[in-house]
Amino acid sequence: MNNQIETAQCCSDNISQVSVTISDFSDEILLNILRFIPSHDLILNVSRVCRKLRTLCLDKSLRVHVHLHKEYTANDDAVKQLLKVISADIQTLNLNGCYWLAGSTVDQVTRCKSLVSLDLSGCRLTSVRLSHLLSSLSSLKSLALDVGPGFDLHQLSAEGKSALARLQELKQTLLTPSYGVVPCCSALRRLHLYLEASEVWREAGGCAQLMVGQSSVPHYQNLRWFSARLAPGEVNRTLLALYLAVFSMRVPEGLTGLVLSVPGPAPPPPVAMTALMESMASTVGNTVSALQLPRTWLDGAILGRVLAHGCPAYLNVSRCSSPGFNPLHVLLSAGRDLTPLRSLNLRGCGRGPLSESCGKGDEEMDTDSVKALAECCPHLNHLNLSATHYHHNLSTGQDGHLCGTLGRLTGLCSLALPVCALAQSPPTQINNQDSNTDLASRSLLLGLKKTTRIGVPTYRPTSEIAVGQGEERTDRGLCIQPLLQGCPYLVELELIGAGFSSAMPRNEPAIRKDPAACSWSYSVGDGELAALGGMKFLRKLTLAHLPGVLKGTGLIELLQGCKDLHSLSLANLGSLKTMNYTQALLEALSYCTQLRELRLEQPYFNANAAFFEALSQCGQLRRLCLVSRHGTFQPAAVTAFMQSCSDVIMCHMFMGGTLVACKTLQKTLLDSFSVSRPALSVVIYPLLHEDLAHVIRGMPLCHLDEMTLFKSRVAEEPMRR
What we know:
By secondary structure, this protein is α/β, with parallel strands linked by helices. The chain is 27% helix and 15% strand. The protein is built from 25 helices and 24 strands. The strands form 3 sheets. It has a 20-stranded parallel β-sheet, with helices on both faces. β11, α11 and β12 form a beta-alpha-beta unit. One of its GO terms (cellular component) is SCF ubiquitin ligase complex. It holds the Pfam family F-box-like. InterPro entries: F-box_dom, FBXL18_F-box, FBXL18_LRR, LRR_dom_sf. Residues 19-66 form the F-box domain.
């Protein structure tokens, strides 16, 4: 095109035909549109369309910040060319999760002399390469990197160590027991640790090497933020204890953020734990911004000390309640202004065990305190109430339902609830069988007839409801309506049955037995799912452990309503002895035109040609994960699907089948599509195989953490600055 963009004709019955071109838009509008285009595509392709776009693409606002995270089409050649063209303008470069880029491509980052922030998490980085990069980046203030086996701090040049000494923010993912580059970072103000060391290092005595000599002790004197997130395992707990030991030598003044996420048993708290809590935000003018501690470290006294300095914006007290300590009670009775609170994780925190216990250690939601919370925290954006039980008190009527309370939090963006929170009433009692039934005929057919699921209401989609029968649908979703009306802009919703455990492990064998479901969750089925279709802005949806789903027809209406859904995770819907919503799922997938990510976990799932044909209608799909105990798959159907959906770069399947069949399919897919899709990650392995934990450790961490492993993600991370 010669300096013009093709004209679009706008017609109307009431006005004459008007010729409108994109050139008629202001530069400001066009720049806002161009910001949604990936940097490599913008600079290498869009800028060549016409002179006007070429001029706009020179705008520094489009070049200063380059984010290639999840840009799976950015291959080595594209990234090298991008850095060559705009290296002088780049100040922020995010290559987080770009595991497919070659080391020679990472070397090109040295061109970007003005870099202030660099994220290389997941990239191939050696000590020598890091030294070369740091020596060229004299303005660097923020760095993120992985520290793997073979990393040697002594291989860094003097210029590289000087660059580290100027860093103010560091994010380290430790794949091996190490202090990484922390000993050189004497000016750090923010330190983020992700401890991902394998248990193999415990046998090799990896942590013992860090205890020798004081030269490797980290520098914390200027620290304002410290966070550490651990993968399961003794090695990572020991490694955290070594990092925290420094607090006992010197407590940093003015620490405003302390976030420690430790699965399983926590290491002993530092000796200076009390002093550390006292010092948080004690500096005049500072307030606590974020707090999360392991459950055994937190009590009412410690939480009270922190709240005495002000309410944090992020508070995670997941599973921290204990006899005599209710975190929500302490928060509400602290006498502080709670309006700064934006993100609150109360997962597994209740007022005590259920009177009618649904399982060992089950907590009952403290609904009165939740109501008080809704009044005190009007600006709450993220709230996690999962891993508890809510059994509605019928005497309070629909106005007293939890959904009505949550509907007052009009600013909610993400919400996690237990499945039973959507139940309007207790499950119907199982009726005695008709005494007139022919017992002899029933005994002859015993084991041949399908079991009747008594007490689970049958839902019919709108298309099957005759005129005058629409009250059925309204009644089933009645309690949800206040939530839909009060929180119209909810973008992330998790409904997870209390006690749910995924069959997909981390460092241990796959779970072979499914936990019992809450009896109230049987009252939440297709009708409630259909009502959720009213959430028009929903982008991420997780449904797990919903035994009340019969045929899955409500899933169809849900996905019809949520047209812009980007991420969908389904786990253990309906019966666990057979997958009873296959047909509904196939139809529902036809409405997922914007879906990028699908995770499906269901025992006895058959990933056949019909499923992959329906899935092929999701033209935007990027990542797929299937987990099924005793599940089956058809290799030809998987291959055909990958051929038709050229944007899929992750295919993880953990099902049944032999090891040979799984490896054969994996090799076929990698051989066929790796050249055209550099970011392709294919892992196909028997779910119940004893070596699965070893296979998991070899996956890209970005896929493992974000897709393959199931977990509640609402209010799990502090809000980004």
